[in-house]
Amino acid sequence: MDSSNSIRALERPYFQLTLYPHSPAKKSRGYGALSWRIPMSEPFPRGVIQPVNHLVAFVVKYLAMATLIGLTLGIMGGASLGQVLYAALILSAVAYVAGDLLVLRATSNTVATIVDALTAWAILRLTLPEAAVGVPLLASIIGVAVVEYFYHLYLKDGVLEPA
């Protein structure tokens, strides 16, 4: 490898992982730190959908919705695990496309959160009609609104391109 390639390799963006020992005194002096520089691939051109970022974002959303629906409608409402996972998948897919990719890009976090909460109400009532009633449904919708508010901050910070 010639020197021009090694210089270009250093200029590329990288992810640095550093592990420190448990002692704060050693951390401050830099003793015993393990550090790796992992080169990252070139970013996609502006305006092109970055599939890996969106896949990770969707998986995060699905796991959050499955956990939330499992706690509220699974435990409180009596829905089975299969019903919870199915409802979380449908809710995550519809809310990601409608609320996150379309509404969040065009409006504010508050409007997108309200749209996601209304979408959650409709999807949960359709997919879990016996479990999604009363207090479990209300707890689910409030939980979805809180989770979505912070999820939108995550999306705007690192996944979505400005409109």
Give a topology summary.
Blueprint: H1 3-11, E1 14-19, H2 24-29, E2 34-39, H3 51-76, H4 81-106, H5 109-127, H6 134-158
Antiparallel strand pairs: 1-2
Helix pairs in contact: 3-4, 3-6, 4-5, 5-6
Shape: globular
> Which percent bin holds the helix content?
55-70%
Q: CA-to-CA gap between the ends?
A: 42 Å
The total count of helices amounts to 6
One letter per element, helices H and strands E, the order comes to: HEHEHHHH
Main sheet, how many strands, which sense, barrel? 2 strands, antiparallel
Strand order of the largest sheet: 1-2
Q: Whole-number average pLDDT?
A: 78
Structural category is mainly alpha
**What is the number of E strands?**
2
Radius of gyration: 21 Å
Beta-strand proportion: 5-15%
Spans of 5+ residues with little confidence (pLDDT < 50)? none
